């Protein structure tokens, strides 16, 4: 089976949806997703989206991002992220996304590593609110065809140019022949047993890049989130947003004593918790919600409900927390317009390495990166659009229908880790 289009977007998180929406409405776009539209890590995001609070906040926001990333960031990428952040939030508002308001203006919260309150949010389900707004908008676009339960198996290339993807859809292998391919497939969280990610998000985009020789960068760089909920059950960890600490919650050791400044960058807090767990010989430490000077049920309704449903009352008792894999910092190497080393192939969101995060991501910069670089990818495609299209004989091209990249990605991550140790 063969489908023709102008652009195929692989992935239905914030990056993929924004890119599809920002492309001209006379383009024929196909958006495919491995599961359902809602089954992306974007949907799970709780905290919010960082945004510059006017020109006076520019240097502070840039410095906070560089400091969190240990100054290993691409400064140009950071400047782009900060300078285009206000426009990014306005784009989301235009697409119908709702954020919390205060006195007819956007409300702001703070998270670890930020020197001021500059994070817009929707209660404690920002990702869900953003995704629901974008999904509703995408479904109104007649030029965007959505294929759910459609798994990319490979990309098709010729002479280092992307010509589309091979996907399995409705139990059939389908060649989606496109002029441009955008990978928005997410990170590698599903490869880790202790992770806040959906288990099906296992680095497919990175695996495809590896097999086609597309340039990668720092794919062993991951971020550990300090406060996932500790539960005995095996599976995805429930995240307790950093904004909980931003609003005043305190981290305590097993003996009930505070041992770390909760608003340090994530890697610092995670390391401190691991060290304290080792010292205590404990499986977790504690998070005290009772130091928050707000109604926690109103500010964090989703988190509180989840905790109450499993028998933990955060108004009366400490909550057990443990660090968990949360975000893939490294990925497919891209330029400032999300272009990869393969012609007509773009990568956006967690699958890409823009250089924004350095070695540690500043809280709430991930959804912002998705919007900023999703918009940039769409703009670059528009600016370089060509009517030319190659007619292909698939019998003469090499491609895979296996699509199992798990071992390939794990091996490359290990190799990248070893190269840094040396």
TrEMBL record:
Domain FAD-dependent oxidoreductase 2 FAD-binding, chain residue ranges per copy: 6-367
Reactions catalysed according to its record: L-aspartate + O2 = iminosuccinate + H2O2
Pathway membership, UniProt: Cofactor biosynthesis; NAD(+) biosynthesis; iminoaspartate from L-aspartate (oxidase route): step 1/1
EC number, UniProt record: 1.4.3.16
Entries under InterPro entries matching the protein: FAD-dep_OxRdtase_2_FAD-bd, FAD/NAD-bd_sf, NadB, Succ_DH/fumarate_Rdtase_cat_sf
Needed co-factor(s): FAD
Any one GO molecular function term: L-aspartate oxidase activity
SUPFAM superfamilies: FAD/NAD(P)-binding domain (SSF51905), Succinate dehydrogenase/fumarate reductase flavoprotein, catalytic domain (SSF56425)
Keywords: FAD, Flavoprotein, Oxidoreductase, Pyridine nucleotide biosynthesis
Family of the protein in this entry: Belongs to the FAD-dependent oxidoreductase 2 family. NadB subfamily.
PANTHER family linked: L-ASPARTATE OXIDASE, L-ASPARTATE OXIDASE, CHLOROPLASTIC
Name of the protein described by the UniProt record: L-aspartate oxidase
Organism, scientific name: Peptostreptococcus canis
